[in-house]
Sequence to fold (83 residues):
Amino acid sequence: MTDPKRVLNEFYNVCVEARCHFDLYRSMYENNPTGTQLCVNYAPYFFNDFIRIITRMLVLTSAELPTRHSLAQEPISRQTTYC
Fold:
């Protein structure tokens, strides 16, 4: 059973954190026209790079999964021979 006071306290903490993020956003962009223009100009570059990084990570991870599976099927020799 969950304690209502604990749930309410956690909700309060989330709200305080969201308010801090909003205040930071407003101080950086809404009150500063050059900051707003900077955000508008460079946001497409940021999200383009972000999407490219995530896509590469997903492709590499999905390409690596069959390799791990096939390696797991082969017996592993624990003996080492030194020449």
Summary: Residues 72 and 78 are 14 Å apart (CA to CA). The chain has a mean pLDDT of 81. DSSP finds two helices and no strands in the chain. The two ends are 64 Å apart (CA to CA).
